[in-house]
Structure prediction request, 242 residues.
Amino acid sequence: MKDQKNIFIIAGSIIVAGIIIGAAVLFSGAQGVKDQKADLAGELPTPPEEIVTPDVIEVGSKGHPFIGDKDAPITIIEVSDFECPFCNRFTLDTLPELKETYVDEGIVKFVFRDFPLPYHPFAQKAAEATLCVYEQEDADYYEYHMMLHENSTALDIDDLKEYAEEVGVDADDFAACLDDGDFEKIVKEDFEEMNGIVQNSGLDNFGTPGFFVNGRPLIGAQPFSAFEEIIEEELAKIEDEE
Prediction:
């Protein structure tokens, strides 16, 4: 009986000792993990400085179609895609009022820059078509531009040629320009250039349509009032400088 009791005592001691040793190992391991995390944290690279989007972004307008006075005090550059629904909304709802209020009055020069998105199958050729119209002196670029946005779901080659005839271009010259891809390379290069400007400027919220009002970015299908506010601020700056 006594021997049996001793056996229970020894067994119990072994179990207790095992628990103590196990706890020590776990504590040591946990502490080691904790220390390791602290060491790793100290070795992590310093996060890059946040890219700050400048208030004014330089975007070229030379050589691109425009409406208005070439020497107007305010320049608005639109970056757009003919199949973009938001671009269509701006063009049909806001652009006419901007044109009447500021462009036709010699206050704003409105520049068009094409940004045909790769997943819009007709946008590239539509952009080329507008340039084919723009190079013909007697053709109405603005009318053609509006017509493409009004018919943004029908922009295949035959459609583009039909609309061109409606605005009075030389049909043969236009067809040759479009079929030969006279402006294909230019449109693609403009897309790459504009994409680089967006990436380098930190405009992570950029989307079509995008606007630069004397270099100040304005993104999205904004209402007339949003443009009016910036235009008036820019005019006030010019008056202060005079």
Q: What stands out?
A: Confidence is low (pLDDT under 50) at residues 1-52. Residues 67 and 120 are 26 Å apart (CA to CA). The radius of gyration is 33 Å.
